[in-house]
Amino acid sequence: MEKTVEKTLVIQRYNPEQDQRPSQQRYQVPFDNSTSVLDALLYIQQSLDPSLAFRWSCRMAICGSCSVMVNGIPKLGCKTFLREYSGDLLLEPLAHFATEKDLVSDMTLFLQHLQAVKPYLIRQEQSAATTPATKPQPHKQTPKQLAKYRKFSSCINCGLCYAACPQFGLNPEFLGPAALTLAQRYNLDNRDQGKAERMPQLNGKNGVWGCTFVGFCSDVCPKHLDPAAAVNQGKVASATDFVIGLFKP
Amino acid sequence: MQILHTDIAIIGGGGAGLRAAIAAAQTDPNCKISLLSKVYPMRSHTVAAEGGAAAVTLQQDSLQAHFDDTVAGSDWLADQDVVDYFVSHAYEELVQLEHWGCPWSRRDDGSVQVRRFGGMKTERTWFAADKTGFHILHTLFQTSLQFANINRLDEFFVLDLLVVDQQIAGVLAMQLSTGELYQIQAKSVILATGGAGRVFHYNTNGGIVTGDGMALAYRHGVALRDMEFVQYHPTGLPGSGILITEASRGEGGILLNKDGYRYLQNYGLGPETPLGKPENKYMELGPRDKLSQAFWHEQQKGRTGNYGEHAVVYLDLRHLGSSYLNERLPFICELAKSYVNVDPAKAPIPIRPAVHYTMGGILTDGQCQTSIGGLYAIGECASVGLHGANRLGSNSLTELLVFGKVAGVAAVAHAKQRQALPSSALNAQCQQHHQQLQARFGAKQADRVASLRKAMTLAMEQGCGIYRTTEGMQQCLNTLQQLKQRYQQLAVSDNSKIFNYELLQHYELGFGLDVAEAMCASALARQESRGAHQRLDQGMQSRNDTDYLQHSIAQLMPETAGAAGGSAKISYQPVRITKSTPAARLYGGAATKQEPV
Fold it and tell me: Which of A90, A153, B88, B347 is 20 to 30 Å from B141 at the Cα level?
């Protein structure tokens, strides 16, 4: 496949060591049917400008590193192809996050939000794994029980849903789609007993009720795991939790 | 330069590093653990493993059978005491992950489902659809978040190990977001940096898999073992090398040449098994080395097809039907659609072998200890002695867990009894390295990191591919040595501090060149064919147990050691054989005939 056709990529550049504000730089990139946005960025870094900064690794849409805005829409660079765009492409760092350099966003808040929902299996009784007398065995979990949360366990932490979420844009303390989905993933797991520990976060002012159900997070999710549905299931759980709370002594 | 003090520094936040961190945190809640990773841990390449993790599970299976498959798979170059330990601790580790929430695929009764895998006699591979590595990595990462004594240093890149009198004293690292150097003083250090597949041009690996940890240890005199054994995975997508899991064949996928013929039956893997009825160790469920070699022969005979400029064969999954494919292989369907525009339910996927895994690595004993006191190595960067000349698919994810735990526990014990080392020696080492770092910057030149890297990866592809010749390897070695010379002059033109990826890649290239040279020199020295190391030279086309039933040991000559300087010296070390004496390595019908009744 000859790469004779070229496309223009307009890339937001910003180096805080020397720039007052971001600027735009244009690059001409050869492409064919298989050229992804990530391929194009690598071409620029390798052949035109080694100073261009962006994250990447797996180039197969599973590591979640190469998130960028393409013409204003959050995308995974490795799963977005130049052939899909008729004109120039404008590449910018993820919206709603601070920019560290060029296309590199500061993901610190995102990680804090993930951690805040206690995203691990919580069991009240002593885990069977820690009693040495008998050989530890797996819990039972039927395919049906697995199916309840399986989709929500497929989040690759790419952060696209945060760049799509207007609430997170307004209030960075809002836990946001991925973290709320992760909480829901554990709450729906029949092996987990930690829902009560997660509910204060989910019920809190930065929890599920912050979501206004715009649904753009689900549109941009590259793994189609529908964070909007997870968040709104969380609302039901939160409401139920509230009602039960009223009747508890 | 910032100075940090910690008990244990773990380099690498993939499956092995995270498992070690959790083991250390559980062993001693007061132990200070620093987990350094050049990317956020969930970006680590464990994430891309698809097929599964092996452990003896079914009634009809046995530890002995898993042992035998692994040892035969290794072409008798695995250390058998290590294999023994591995197979007997595999199951408890997979159960441990289950207790941490890993979403393993299940049978209708709620028990864990196992699938077939290449070179394994019985179904024993646990899986989470076809994203097993992803789920293992995220389960470990999320679990690690509950331990307050694990201090993550995300996007920290290790430039050097700090070693005093053959004792580890810590690491020198650069925080990528600031360019700031950190002297991290540690009583124990665990290397868990992954493989080096990116020294080859076509590979299934992420961009971060550049052999850093191997080179870090190698430059301090630690041996790299069995480096000539590089696994070509038989099914990568043409061009990109994106991995199409072996589980595709475990579930019943078949391999066809351009004439639609199941060519594997011509290469000691037949007779042909009926469509939709895969049999363990037959045909498509042979081991990876044999399958990749069969591709090479088909290519020589002109029986491969073309995909763009790439020779390919075809992975046919159509008979599995779209609903089964969506349940068992959803990620494969997504990848095939995105990257080669094929719906596997409707058309075969074009595939070809691509470099996947480095069997060799940093020499350790069975407890993951290297020759430097307090320095451990685990996972793909290590050679604990499990894989020998060829790794069986689904043994490596389990390896991360079994030996990650061993190293985490050992590192805690070592840290407790270790005396403080003089910090003056550390300061001197760090200052010296800082000067070397400064010397890397310079004006823009004709040579660039990217052009040298491409020359390296193409040389490795040509010289150290599926089949090797003396002439080809010698040429590759010459090229690598020239590239190392050019590397000495190669300047970094971007002198910014924040996220300077040109500088990062400059270091990675230096690491890669050292590792590539160790691979090529080890390959040239081994004058036989075994496992993934196959030679076309006269008299070297078969296994030679008389002379080469031994591990190769590559050492960087100390007088010239430094940033991609020096050259590899090769020696040999006996293989530990406890109960399985080397025999012919047979698959398909040939193996069945030979088995005692």
Answer: B88
